[in-house]
Each structure stands twice: as structure tokens, then as C-alpha cells.
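Could you help me review a protein record that somebody else here produced? What it holds is a sequence and that sequence's fold in C-alpha cell form. I have pasted the whole thing underneath without changing anything:
=====
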Amino acid sequence: MPELPEVETIRRLLRNGGLNSPSLINMKIIGAEVLWDRTVVEPAASIFIDKVINQTIKDVDRRGKFLILVLADYNLLIHLRMSGDILIESLDEPLGKHHRVVLILDEGIKLAFVDPRKFGRVWLLTETSRVIGALGPEPLSDEFTRGSFFQRLNNHHRQIKPLLLDQNFLAGMGNIYTDEALHCAKIHPLLKSDQITRKQSDRLWECIRSILLEGIKNNGASIDWVYRGGDYQNYFRVYQRRGEPCQVCGVDIERIVVGQRGTHFCPECQPLPSK
């Protein structure tokens, strides 16, 4: 699933242009197609088309793993889920079998939401709080402070790995960057959040931010066929490196399942404290 660095990379591409595609800012939507109705959560697909046509794209934003196209009168929210992606294509390029929603823009291009597994979703709303209002703080924002993070950790009695994956606790973290940050901070993924000391919390806060920034710098990670363009996978510390030596201590990386998610860690660098 695309996580914060991958979604942020897409946001910057759509907003600023690059890779032979222009910025979408101030482009007008002159046509739309919904090729799989269930992709659009709200409103109904036919109403979505009527409302989105003639809207101008004013900005491209992000909240957690949500991509937000700020339109003149609405907000278009896109969640890529497991396999979604955003493509900018010429109008004469044929639609693929995985195209779900297509917006035709007045500059002779189209914005296509493609999603092979059909888990991705789209909302067209005037007010976004019903969908994203409960999300936790942005880990790269000013409101995400060392002190507030430590307090939030100690307000829960949960294993740290699932807690960091909880989007209502912290927005944007996923399996990749959580494993990487926990290794950086030398914290075992099964450690309970209220057992984490202030020193460990500060270190984890620093690692979350530095790992995410490193991921963004490298345009995210391309680890399968559903996301393209990033190369952060070349810098993984532990993720998908089971059986390979830890880059810090040389002990083999192990894989366990935590909260139904495959989890990679170093048993030497990230020991679980005895009770």
C-alpha cells in the first residue's frame, strides 16, 4: 500500500509537475468517466460526474494517505488503498482495464485513477471532516512534538507496531516505514507503548521523521508493480530483508506477524525487554 512518502511524491508531481507531466493547478475538468461505480463512495457516480465537470483544480494537498484535489467548489479525496495509482495521460491514450475514474482536463490530458485490486476509493465533498477528521497528527507537522508524542504513547497500552499503524493515532504510517523507524529507534515491535521511556520516545519521534523524509527524498519505495518511480527500497534497513544481516550489528533480520502484518526487525538491535 502506498504510504505517506509515496502519496506525498504523487502530490508533488500533480501540484508542481515533472517527469514530462505539467502541474494540474488551474486546469479545468471538462469531462469525467466512472468506469467502476463502487470506486466513488460519495456521491453516486452519475452525480459525481455532473458535479466534477467544470471544476477548476486550485491545489493538490495530502492528509495522511489521502490525496486531496482542492477544486473550486469541492474537495476530491482519493485513497489509493492497496494498489491504486494516479496517472497523467494524453487524451488519445486508450483506457486500460484497471482504469476506475478518469478526469479529462482542458489542457489536452487526462488524470486517471487506476486500481487493479479495486480497493481504492474516491469522495467528492464540500466538507472533508467526515472522512479525514479523525486522523491523527501529521508526523512531519509542527503539531507532532516530542512531548505530545510521548504523552500519546503513554495514554495507550498497545503493542507499538499496531499503534503506529493506527491512522487515528498517527496519520500516514504504514508497514514499511514503521518497521524502518522502529529499527532506527532500536525498539521491538511488540513493546507496549506505555512501557516506552521518554528517551526511547524521543528517539522514535526523530526516527519517524527522518525515515519519512528519507523516503520522500527518494520518491518513496517501489516494491511491487502497483507503484513506480521510487528507489527507497534500495535503502531498507529491515523491511523485506528477512535472513539478511543487519546493517548495524550483522545479526540476521527476522520476520514475525504482529497484528496480522508481516513485521521485520533485528533481534539484536531491537530486543524485547524481559518482564
